């Protein structure tokens, strides 16, 4: 179940809530009980570093050698 970050429009509290993928965020209330909340969009927690991935990475070598 993914965790989403929310912001309360009344008291400006930031909090997290876990929702199913198809579940609506309309019923999420802030910890103080306010109903006016909105979901914040945050960057993913994965960062790719390095030179990248190539077609030849992790590929089995064939029996033939290139000249």
Task: Describe it.
- It contains no helices and three strands.
- It has strands at 3-8, 14-18, 37-40.
- It has a domain at 3-40.
- A hairpin with a 5-residue loop joins strand 1 and strand 2.
- It is 0% helix and 22% strand.
- It has 67 residues and is mainly beta.
- Strands 2-1-3 form a three-stranded antiparallel sheet, with no helix packed on it.
What fraction of the residues are assigned to beta strands by DSSP?
Answer: 15-25%
Tally of strands = 3
Distance between the termini: 52 Å
Low-confidence stretches: none
Question: Which class of secondary structure composition applies to the elements?
Answer: mainly beta
Q: What profile does the largest beta sheet have?
A: 3 strands, antiparallel
Order of helices and strands: EEE
If you average the pLDDT, what whole number results?
Answer: 83
Brief account:
The protein contains no helices and three strands. By secondary structure, it is mainly beta. It starts with a strand and ends in a 27-residue tail after the last strand.
Topology of this protein?
Blueprint: E1 3-8, E2 14-18, E3 37-40
Question: What characteristics describe this protein?
Answer:
3-stranded antiparallel sheet; 0% helix
